[in-house]
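Our consortium's second objective concerns turning raw sequence data into structural hypotheses that experimental partners can test. To show how far this objective has progressed, the report includes one record in full. It was chosen at random from the queue rather than selected for favorable results. The single chain below, 279 residues long, was entered without modification.
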Amino acid sequence: MQIRPIQPDELAIVTAWATDYGWNPGIYDADCLYEIQKSQFFVGIVDDQPVGCVASIAYTDQYGFICFFAVAPDHRGKGYGKQLWRHALSVLNTHSIGLDDNTSNIDYKQDGFREAYRNLRMSTTISHDAPELPPHQKIVSLKELPFEQIEAYEAGVFPASRPQFLRYWINNPQSHSLGFLSNDQLLGYGIIHPCQTGYKISPLLADNRGIARAIIQSFSHRIGSIPVFVDVPETNPAGVNMAMRLGMGITMKAKRYYRGEIPQLPTEKMYGVSTFEFG
């Protein structure tokens, strides 16, 4: 099998493979990866046809994330996944690495990975009214805020700087992004993306569950009774409880693994990770 960087006309097929695994990727997730880190996004080729894919996101020189790891349904069980996996690890050889997995087809511990926690995919089709807020609080589009303010908030919650990804998500015309302000201080934000099924809020970061709830309600009020998904770390029980109170049920569980140092993150502020594709 030859492994090479992905081409634009192959983005749709790898998205279909990811959908087949049940990940429900965002419509533009593969496009985002290709635009920002095309040299880190790979396909495996057999007889001139793509049979699998994997992405090794290098957020910084120290931290990376493996995602979009999939093999075409009719080529599974032939060892192609193992070859793609070895290639992904070699690309991020000097990095601490994170990944999410909902299949357990690979023994990640053999390659030095440790399980950190589980992310719970939760969803609902219930529409909510917009939240009522006191005068000193408001919810605004992230496009109205200085980008440095958004980046500074995320710096305390995500293990690496990723300005290119944040800008892509905020400026994507098919996505919506909201920030919660109290006395003009940013206390949380969320970005909602169209997916193969419904919408996904990713990420959703907030100082407390009341703020996270207000952001979810604002999104729900805008899009109506369309399926909405959010991936909540199980280590944030307040987040899980908040989602359940909004009528969300658990539809999938995925384990978060790390190789190298496990980031010490305030999961109590993580009400939705950046999906299984971006960490």
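The partners drew two points from this record. The first strand starts at residue 2 and ends at 5. The CA atoms of residues 2 and 45 lie 5 Å apart. Both points have been shared with the crystallography group to help prioritize constructs.
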